[in-house]
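the two lines:
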Amino acid sequence: MPEIAINKDKCKGCFLCVSVCPQGFIIAEDELNIRGIKPVKFKPGGKCTGCAMCALICPDCCIEVYR
Amino acid sequence: MDKIYAHPKSLRDVSTHYCPGCGHGLAHRLITEVVDELGIREKVIGVAPVGCAVVAYEYWDFDCSEAAHGRALAVATGIKRVRPENIVFTYQGDGDLAAIGTNETIHAANRGENLSVFFINNAVYGMTGGQMAPTTLLNQKTSTTPDGRCAQLQGFPLKISEMLALLPGVKYIERVSLHSPQEIIKTKKAMKKALINQMEGIGFSLVEILSPCPTYWGLSPKPALDWIKNTMVKEFPLGVIK
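prediction for all of em together
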């Protein structure tokens, strides 16, 4: 099953990936990262389709996609 | 399982100093993806501007130079003429290319230098605190136009791409945007074309990229992308200009 890997410590919390995920499976993390902001995480139990739109729009290159 | 979207090899794995949602990070990444795909990492030389992207060479893992404010195309001209076998591009913001560097830009284009130019248009001066840029839209509020840009006082948004398209030395100009995944794919295609034009000796190519500056537009990252789509594109229409 496709999946994404998020580099949470590089994430700046702009949430652009959240806005483009067609499944709505990228959500805010509950805990802060080393920057002191809430990064994103993949919703537990969500089924990624591997469309890679999140990786395409991430301005900080924090997301890698496996399919 | 295959990795279908990986960190580009030409992009250093470091955090950038850009604000959350800034278009510079995206544009940097697209350039490195194109460089990797064309296999020109050992041949390419980037010229960084003065502006928010002044330390772009800290993020690109290939040869780079830095130019005085606005003079990137003059420096790039020198590099390309001395080392014609290298692929030379400049990366400039609107303050750099369309304000202090208008002179260098117009004359490099008029000479038809075989260079690729990536022009980041975010309609504001980012590094110095959100002042009005030549490309600021009418009625757009900035720190030096608190009531909005007024045509009578500050003139009209400068359409440098349309101006340069009149010059016979210019071979390719396209205006693209970063406001959606579809437009990002088009941006990458345009960047690739600009570099291929140089490799084939076709001549001066410029890609104008409408890019978000959430901090100085006073918007969150997603509304900043919507602002490009709904407002900025009306003033700066997308597509191939020449």
